[in-house]
């Protein structure tokens, strides 16, 4: 009888532990986002599927990045990079920076984390203003949703930083029914 009570106590304790871990207050509302590329009204876009619905993050409407990748190819590749960095815990912030002299947009754990090959989301053409491009690419509904962009008070080469959790929690969800493109 004591063994049965002990076993019941252990099972109950494990259930409580796992249950409370699943609803931890430190967990973000963005929670288990899944990033994917879909075509919306003829334009490829990177989306995040959240508990609230699909959030459009970036519309790939132009060939401004050159002819090496079509907007659809870029969308698919960048969406994969978003997902990989999210899975690795690096996608807490989207920020701008430089890698090997090229302006880039990358994932970061904090606003102060440097961009690296491992956290690279996409590269821009030399001479591009990464902050301006990031502002234009990131869907306006998300940026208008709240104070999600941070810029340091420097004169030049300031890094732009966007809180991913705040963006996903406040951005307007898409009314369209979109399906991932592979």
From TrEMBL:
<dbReference type="InterPro" id="IPR025478">
    <property type="entry name" value="COP23"/>
</dbReference>
<keyword id="KW-0732">Signal</keyword>
<feature type="signal peptide">
    <location>
        <begin position="1"/>
        <end position="29"/>
    </location>
</feature>
<dbReference type="Pfam" id="PF14218">
    <property type="entry name" value="COP23"/>
</dbReference>
<protein>
    <submittedName>
        <fullName>Uncharacterized protein</fullName>
    </submittedName>
</protein>
């Amino acid at each position: 009888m004591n063994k049965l009570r002990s076993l019941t106590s252990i099972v109950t304790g494990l259930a409580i532990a796992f249950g409370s871990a699943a609803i931890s207050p430190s967990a973000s509302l963005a929670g288990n986002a899944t990033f994917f590329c879909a075509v919306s009204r003829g334009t490829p876009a990177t989306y995040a599927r959240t508990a609230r619905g699909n959030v459009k993050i970036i519309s790939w409407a132009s060939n401004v990045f050159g002819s090496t990748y079509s907007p659809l190819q870029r969308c698919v590749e960048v969406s994969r990079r978003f997902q990989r960095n999210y899975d690795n815990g690096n996608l807490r912030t989207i920020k701008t920076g430089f890698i090997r002299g090229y302006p880039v947009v990358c994932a970061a754990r904090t606003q102060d984390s440097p961009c690296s090959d491992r956290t690279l989301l996409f590269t821009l053409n030399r001479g591009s203003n990464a902050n301006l491009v990031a502002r234009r690419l990131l869907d306006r509904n998300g940026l208008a949703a709240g104070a999600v962009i941070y810029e340091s008070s420097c004169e030049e080469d300031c890094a732009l930083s966007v809180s991913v959790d705040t963006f996903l929690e406040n951005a307007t969800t898409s009314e369209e029914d979109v399906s991932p493109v592979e």
